[in-house]
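Hi all, posting the design record for the shared folder.

TITLE: backbone redesign
STEP: 1 of 1
STRUCTURE INPUT:
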């Protein structure tokens, strides 16, 4: 049985995240476990996630889940807007809640860091060649 769709296609926060994520070399989008996932060969970001508290999943529907360096992850988790996502958190991923007041430059930097941890050397070189 496929997972139910767990996002609203018209969500403006998803639209902003999608624009940023799909600007990376060879980036594409698929639905994985009912949520948008941005990937090349490997996923570098998810939109939406959850946290398991006392056996119950609490949804973070408007969030981005990324894989960043351990030091950056520790710093992010000190902030109330960040969380350890169910399933992926054990592997170093971190969730960041998104709001209308989100700093999108920071989101772009988080996506960049996650992309660099998951994309191959050729894609990273291509990314670097696009930067001034």
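Okay, here is what came back for every position:
SEQUENCE:
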């Amino acid at each position: 049985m496929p997972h139910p769709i767990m996002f609203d296609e018209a969500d403006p926060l998803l639209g902003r995240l999608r624009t940023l994520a799909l600007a990376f070399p060879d980036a594409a989008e698929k639905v994985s476990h009912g949520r948008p996932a941005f990937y090349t060969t490997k996923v570098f970001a998810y939109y939406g996630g959850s946290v398991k508290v006392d056996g119950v999943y609490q949804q973070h529907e408007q969030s981005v889940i990324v894989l960043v360096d351990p030091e950056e992850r520790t710093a992010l988790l000190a902030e109330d807007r960040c969380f350890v996502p169910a399933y992926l958190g054990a592997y170093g991923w971190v969730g960041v809640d998104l709001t209308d007041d989100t700093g999108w430059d920071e989101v772009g930097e988080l996506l960049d860091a996650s992309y660099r941890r998951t994309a191959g050397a050729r894609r990273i070189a291509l990314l670097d060649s696009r930067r001034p």
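COMMENT: The first strand starts at residue 28 and ends at 32.
Let me know if anyone wants the other runs.
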